[in-house]
Specification:
Radius of gyration: 37 Å
Shape: elongated
Number of strands: 6
Strand order of the largest sheet: 2-3-5-6
Order of helices and strands: HHEHHEEHHEHHEEHH
Number of helices: 10
Structural class: alpha+beta
Distance between the termini: 36 Å
Largest sheet: 4 strands, antiparallel
Strand content: 5-15%
Low-confidence stretches: 1-31, 421-425
Amino acid sequence: MWVLLTCRVGVWCLMFSCSVVVLAEPVANSDSATVDLKEAITRTLARNPNLIAFGYQIEVQQGRLTQSALRPNPEFGVLVENVLGSGELEGVDGAETTLSLGWVLERGKRERRVTAARAGLSLLESEAEIRRLDAVAATAHLFLDSLANQERLIQTQAAVTLSEQTVVAVSARVQAGRTPEADLARAEAELARMKLAQEDVEHELVTSNHRLAAQWGEMQLDFIRVEGNIKALPTPDSFTSLLDKIDQNPNITLYLTQQRLREAELRLAETEAKPNWRVSMGIRRLERSNDEAFVAGITIPLATRNRNQGRIAEARARLAMTDADRTATRIQIETQLFALYQELQHSLHRAAALREDILPRVEQALAHTQQAYSAGRYGYIELRVVQTEVLNTRTALVEASIDAHRFVIEIERLTGASMKSSVYP
């Protein structure tokens, strides 16, 4: 059953592997071990410890379903009367022996139990889909963390290279007597800070890779880097179209399944208010006359009071609570979707402005400033200010791209459907 469930939610896996596909590129031919998003999700769905553990709950409920379908066993009875008495009933000569078989008539309770057990199994399957979807989203987030740290490492390495070039340029001017040695000390201190920042990012990258591998239960890394292009941003659908997809959210489906379970529990509670009937039939042996006779009987409890009214009231309350919870959950999802969509639009706008308007200008300013510094028209302070502006703008562009991808992942998790992207047809 767990294998079948894996196939059932495969569409969610495909959805996520496509939805964040702008992060995943084909693995490049290199000697370094790499993993892309599709492979990370595949491993997670196959080997995630939490998903495997939840699979046993499915098996537990399957056992309950099997048990609920069993009929009560017939009862064999032996009744001996008129023995070991006094007078004519002394000994066993006047004994009357009855052999009988009895059955319990559940009056529809077994069918109600089966219906409730099946609804419970459907509820667990819906919850399993949510857990798998959450696991896929968590893997996408962790993959994004590793990809982001790789990009941050590239940025810090570029900053180190720029600082090294600056040290060389300042050193040349110091040797020529055109710049005080204090500027060289500042440049060397800045280089040391950049190398320290690079080391910090390297540690964060190793940690994020381990967290990603933990999604599929691995404590040792079998990859060095992840494959993807974090700067490739999606083109989101309209908010109205995303709002129409909320019904695909597995949490809404879960409440619909839970409602069917509560309805089944209510019907079962109402049925259990009816007492079981017992019927029996058998043969009676009369020793005195050496005769035999057929006997039959039925036992009907007198239901003068409803002995299950409390459970019926509880089942009705749970049914009403499920409907109220579903309404509250939908409102919450719509509110979250609106907030995430606004943040996504802001991140995309910010990334576009940084990439198209700000970064080209500060890089151009840096080129002019470096030329002016080499010509002796600018000092080290002016050069360092423009370098900082370039580095900060590049970092801001990377962070805006990361934020946009995070919001995409969350929007797709809420809507249960992938967003279209202009990057991929």
